[in-house]
Write a structure and sequence with these properties.
alpha/beta, five-stranded parallel sheet, 8 helices, about 40% helix, about 25% strand
Amino acid sequence: MRILVVEDDAALSKSLSESLNANGYQTDIAESLKDSLYYVSIRNYDLVLANYKLKDGNAIELLTEVKSRSPRASVIVMASKARPEQEVSVFGNGGDDFLAKPFDFSVLLARIQARLRFFGTSAIEIEDLVINPDEERVTYKGEEIEVKGKPFEVLTHLARQRDQIVSKEQLLDAIWEEPELVTPNVIEVAINQIRQKMDKVLNISTIETVRRRGYRFCYPKRPIGE
């Protein structure tokens, strides 16, 4: 599961990220409101952990944006010298939890696990096709399809953005940790693997190429040849 850590204290954000990674989560770090809004615009997060006060604003604007894009995503807000009005504002704007600093990491971890359990699976179900990001598993009519690694992440991202055209650059930013170090051709390779393992074998269409613009998730669509 992917978590966005939004904290302008560099030492703390690094410590939180490393600890969460050690517990099996994937993390990104944003040190400002502006950066955090950029991240949530290109990636899908299961949970956002944000400091209430940031150098260019506060977490309420981020909270509102996250909930408008992904209502199922959990948002936990942290605050130094926490005040009742801050907590009221967080919950009043759809926040899921509020944590006063300083705190023990084990307490934070327990709260994160509780929030993610509460919302259950993040599986994407579209007719006979089920994509389960938690288990990196794709099934079609109950049969498992062998799509793993980056092709699976590309498939999942496009499925979450279905009916929208997603460019190669957006896919690189959303999925690859250091997109500047890879070429856009890796997207073509991933798409081709998805089509070989799913479309060709199952006689369906999952991803269509929109010339000069990118890709769009198109399942369900009439079977190939009909």
